[in-house]
């Protein structure tokens, strides 16, 4: 019998036979025959394992199946089973039996170490005492497949393939039997020769044993003849079946009797020692911290220790003669105590947790162990109960469990608990055929609350929203806070889309009713995505991902609304994810470019400056439109790195043009709110200007209207520092946001850009003309320069010039140009440094 510590590493074959995937099936068979192996490991050049090709696979490379000259890599099936080198042999036997394996790769730290086969297992089991009493006839198995004398090798191979046989028997012309095995098929494949008849190419006669032979005799015969199959013959000489290695493995059902007997002896010794200790408990239990109660066989208390009185409040005198039922709290049903006594009478011991009541009426939780003390004849003399007060520990565990499964701020279920609830709801819905709706909620512009009012106000708002969401729920529904400002609502038993839409709108309305946090008035809204079971997924994770995807579509659609998930959202989400991944690499791989669109004087059409525009030349997609990647950069915080690159590149281009004697005028660079808020942007700008030897007049910074009007986050202070540096500041896309003129006049800006949406229809829309006229008038009254963007018609140029707008950009003059073309334009128009026009 093997030692319990024997592992498969000690019996596995370490001389692995390997080949590349390109080797032909015939050559693989030849190598296996030469090495006497039943399998060959197919391995890539980098050492990774493709699979294993075995004798069984050779059946498919002979006539009627695969081409024997095709690469072995193309004929592989599932990867080989892999077992760790330190696996006990007994465990490997069970795995081979359960999974019906014939080969398994033995690996250490992911690297192949050797190959374990059925042959190795049968030869190393070391269970002779077991095998000698086990008869061949006791093994289950089908009757032998016997082919007639006239059967051809091709017919035999086809039968083995169809029935998954490792061997079959055929009748010999002179009487008796021969045997065809997978090893024979391998040899035929290797030699490229198919015998004309079965008796010409197979082993004969068939070696066998009587049905009453022992498994030990069968194994010895197999080892003696170095074969893997035996015939089993009845008393009348009739062939009953074939006996193979796998049959012997299935017959090995020993249970390591020596180890089990030793474990039982150790248990008995420990139990005897425990009984002895309990008999002496009256001498030692006075000092223990656990409460001890000793009763007679009927459960009447005979003795208690001081710890019993300290925990329960009952004195020794009050307890004697009573039963432990004096401590009952009523928290356990009668069935609990019935189960306790059944276990105690059957096993002589019981342990578990019980809620009992102290003398003063307070409940406490104890961990209780009860043991029966028996005499030499096995009769119960006493019961000894040992218990400890675990109330505080249980309370701490319950608190930790709550904290582990709930959000600390709102006390709502967290992501972990919600996913458990969602999985349970999905299983119930699938079992009962009910509908299920998952609502994914994200607050709109919540970051603005934190940035302007502080995190305390943001936390207050989250708590109030959690309460508002809970108030909207019915008893069987769940709301959770996943993270930050993300909430989920689970609606079970829904009847249709209309019902879900009504509930979703009610929840959004409840959120918008909230106002005021930390004494401040605010408008709160949310975007919601909805996925439905089973239409949008039958798995909990799938529903959550789809609801999240729909929520982002709600954000894109203008916020403060909800969207049901649709299949095309996944494609858009994957496209966006791929684009974001590519964008992370764009800077490092120099895929970004700066193009320049000239700004011209409306009267002379002379170039007076330019706007630097970011372009992304994707290696596969070509030029990606800015409106596709700039929002992604904003959301992923890449805009800060990209903005720094734009600033550095624009200043480098200005310096080169000036050194070449060209005067591009003032170059405008767009700056995002993230750049201005995070990091010391002013110091960064000073450094870049100094490195390129430029004065502040060379640069103009364009800031969107919404960023310029933001009062929080020190925005005005940052703009004033830029003004003190001498930087020309202008507001981009003026008129598209929510401008406050009283606030605008306090901003240190020097120019406004009229958004192209007002310019496009000047020739046909009187409202746009009036708005443009008003913006020009406001700019003049505030002493601000003004630039119109998107000018494409001569009539637009004349209108703007008549209103007092002096500068513009647009396709009427020039489209955005790559750096080299813009430089050529400067040279062609004679924009030399000495002729540079004065700044606006």
TrEMBL record:
Origin superkingdom: Bacteria
The GGDEF domain, residue ranges: 434-567
Keywords, ordered alphabetically: CBS domain
Ranges for domain EAL: 576-830
Protein source organism: Chromobacterium sphagni
Protein name stated in the entry: Diguanylate cyclase
Keyword Transmembrane set for record: no
Keyword Flavoprotein (UniProt): no
Domain PAS: 283-323
Domain PAC intervals: 348-402
Residue ranges of every copy of the CBS domain listed in the record: 11-72, 76-132, 202-260
One Pfam match: EAL
InterPro entries found in the cross-reference section: Biofilm_reg_signaling, CBS_dom, CBS_dom_sf, EAL_dom, EAL_sf, GGDEF_dom, Nucleotide_cyclase, PAC
């Amino acid at each position: 019998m093997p030692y319990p510590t024997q592992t498969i590493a000690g019996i596995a074959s370490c001389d692995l036979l390997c080949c590349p995937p390109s080797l032909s099936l015939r050559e693989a068979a030849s190598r296996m025959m030469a090495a006497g192996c039943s399998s060959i490991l197919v391995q890539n050049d980098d050492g990774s394992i493709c699979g294993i090709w075995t004798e069984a696979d050779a059946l498919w490379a002979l006539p009627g199946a695969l081409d024997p000259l095709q690469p072995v890599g193309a004929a592989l099936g599932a990867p080989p089973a892999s077992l760790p080198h330190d696996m006990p042999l007994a465990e490997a036997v069970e795995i081979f039996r359960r999974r019906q394996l014939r080969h398994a790769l033995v690996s250490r730290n992911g690297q192949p170490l050797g190959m374990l086969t059925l042959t190795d297992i049968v030869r190393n089991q070391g269970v002779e005492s077991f095998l000698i009493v086990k008869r061949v006839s006791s093994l289950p198995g089908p009757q032998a497949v016997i082919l007639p004398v006239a059967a051809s090798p091709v017919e035999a191979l086809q039968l083995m393939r169809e029935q998954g046989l490792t061997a079959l028997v055929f009748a010999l012309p002179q009487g008796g039997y021969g045997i065809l095995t997978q090893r024979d098929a391998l040899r035929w494949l290797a030699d490229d020769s198919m015998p004309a008849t079965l008796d010409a190419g197979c082993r004969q006669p068939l070696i066998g044993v009587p049905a009453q032979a022992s498994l030990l005799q069968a194994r010895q015969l197999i080892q003696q003849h170095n074969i893997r199959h035996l015939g089993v013959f009845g008393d009348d000489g009739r062939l009953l079946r074939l006996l193979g290695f796998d049959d012997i493995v299935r017959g090995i059902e020993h249970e390591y009797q020596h180890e089990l007997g030793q474990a039982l002896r150790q248990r008995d010794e420990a139990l005897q020692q425990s009984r002895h200790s309990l008999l002496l408990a009256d001498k030692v239990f006075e000092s223990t911290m656990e409460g001890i109660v000793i009763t007679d066989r009927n459960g009447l208390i005979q003795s208690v220790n001081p710890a019993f009185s300290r925990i329960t409040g009952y004195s020794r005198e009050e307890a004697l003669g009573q039963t432990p039922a004096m401590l009952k709290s009523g928290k356990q049903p009668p069935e609990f105590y019935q189960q306790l006594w059944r276990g105690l009478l059957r096993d002589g011991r019981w342990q578990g947790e019980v809620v009992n009541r102290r003398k003063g009426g307070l409940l406490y939780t104890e961990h209780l162990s009860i043991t029966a003390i028996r005499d030499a004849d096995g009769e119960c003399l006493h019961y000894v109960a040992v218990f400890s007060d675990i109330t505080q520990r249980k309370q701490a565990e319950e608190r930790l469990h709550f904290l582990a499964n709930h959000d600390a701020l709102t006390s709502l279920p967290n992501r972990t608990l919600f996913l458990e609830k969602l999985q349970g709801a999905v299983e119930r819905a699938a079992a009962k055929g009910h509908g299920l709706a998952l609502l994914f909620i994200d607050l709109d512009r919540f970051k603005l609350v934190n940035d302007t009012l502080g995190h305390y106000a943001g936390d207050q708002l989250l708590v109030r929203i959690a309460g508002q969401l809970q108030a909207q729920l019915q008893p069987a529904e769940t709301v959770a806070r996943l993270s930050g400002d993300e909430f989920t609502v689970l609606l079970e038993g829904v009847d249709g889309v209309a019902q879900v839409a009504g509930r979703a709108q009610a929840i959004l309305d409840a959120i918008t009713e909230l106002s005021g946090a930390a004494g401040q008035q605010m408008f709160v809204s949310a975007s919601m995505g909805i996925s439905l079971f089973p239409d949008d997924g039958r798995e909990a994770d799938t529903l959550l991902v789809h609801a999240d995807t729909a929520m982002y579509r709600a954000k894109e659609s203008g916020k403060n609304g909800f969207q049901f998930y649709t299949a095309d959202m996944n494609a858009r989400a994957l496209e966006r994810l791929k684009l974001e991944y590519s964008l992370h690499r764009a800077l490092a791989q120099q895929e970004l470019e700066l193009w320049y669109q000239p700004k011209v004087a409306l009267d002379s059409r002379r170039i007076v400056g330019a706007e630097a525009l970011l372009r992304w030349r994707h290696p596969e997609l070509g030029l990606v439109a800015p409106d596709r990647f700039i929002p992604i950069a904003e959301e992923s915080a890449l805009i800060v790195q990209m903005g720094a690159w734009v600033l550095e590149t624009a200043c480098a281009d200005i310096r080169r043009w000036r050194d070449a004697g060209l005067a591009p005028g003032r170059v405008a660079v767009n700056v995002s709110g993230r750049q201005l808020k995070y990091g010391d942007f002013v110091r960064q700008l000073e450094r870049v200007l100094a490195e390129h030897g430029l004065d502040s007049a060379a640069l103009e910074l364009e800031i969107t209207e919404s960023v310029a009007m933001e009062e929080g986050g020190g925005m005005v202070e940052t703009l004033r520092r830029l003004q003190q540096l001498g930087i020309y500041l202008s507001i981009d896309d003026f008129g598209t946001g929510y401008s406050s003129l009283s606030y605008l006049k306090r901003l240190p800006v020097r120019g406004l850009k009229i958004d192209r949406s007002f310019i496009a229809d000047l020739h046909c829309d009187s409202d746009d003309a009036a708005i443009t006229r008003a913006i020009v008038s406001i700019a003049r009254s505030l002493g601000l320069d003004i630039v119109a963007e998107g000018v494409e018609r001569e009539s637009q140029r004349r209108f703007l010039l008549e209103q007092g707008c002096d500068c513009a950009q647009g396709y009427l003059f020039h489209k955005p140009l790559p750096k080299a073309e813009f430089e050529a334009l400067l040279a062609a128009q004679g924009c030399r440094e000495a002729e540079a026009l004065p700044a606006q």
